[in-house]
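Q: Could you fold this chain for me?
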Amino acid sequence: ADWHRFRVSAPAGPTFTGRLAWQATPELQVGGSYSRGSYLRSDVTDARGPVVPGRRTQDIRAIDATWRRGFTEVRGELAFDRWDVFRVANPARDVGYYVEARRTLFAGIFAAVRYGAIRFRDLASGSGRVDRWDYDSSRWQVAGGYRLGRNSELRVEFMRNDTARNPQPKANLLSFQWWLSL
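A: Sure. Below is the predicted structure, expressed as structure tokens.
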């Protein structure tokens, strides 16, 4: 599909999202979430005409866990994503996950590392042909920072992105951030 030719002028519509969590121990919380909604408006068109009605929803089911003890926190999530895509016989699917760890080193100073990935499932058409709908990707992030108080933080972060595609585009990022909450 030619994504750049779509005419979209407003949000896609309502989305239902919910999450349940259970504090298993003082250190461990586990949870699950679900989200379903439209990712395209019903009046979207492309060069071939209107989008097929009803083929524009996304379902996400996820589980997550957070463990905290002292100055260390580890969290992760596993998400199963399903897209009903117009002009595609079967749903597009992907599995995404991340795990991250954060440690307070000294008063206000922290270090963190995070790994995340998305694995795309191949699309099977009604004719038996199999197509790739996107390339698997992964990301490493390393960060450090200083908490200036409850309402402000300084942070430096390096993010390395890898995509299962040749030649691989350079999409790495070095960022310096300062946030303030009023």
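A (continued): The first strand starts at residue 15 and ends at 23.
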